[in-house]
Amino acid sequence: HGIRGFNWPPSSPDLNLIEKVWRWIKEELKKLPYVLKSKEDLKRELQKLWDRVDSRDFRPYIERLTCKIEDVIAVRGLATIH
Prior knowledge:
Elements: H1 17-30, H2 39-52, H3 59-63, H4 65-74
């Protein structure tokens, strides 16, 4: 999907793009007009959503990453406000 991976510490969710992707997936699952009744249903929907992930949708976040890194350094690894 054109998303380049980075090895970030697990305690830095502010710097972890996959957290943004998971948040998007969770929001999309909430919009489903039906209830998922099995693990298979969930797997199917997750796969559909994963296939829709487009790195262009996350470009604004990626472009702000340098500033976010500086923010995290400034707060010594704690969560930032944006």
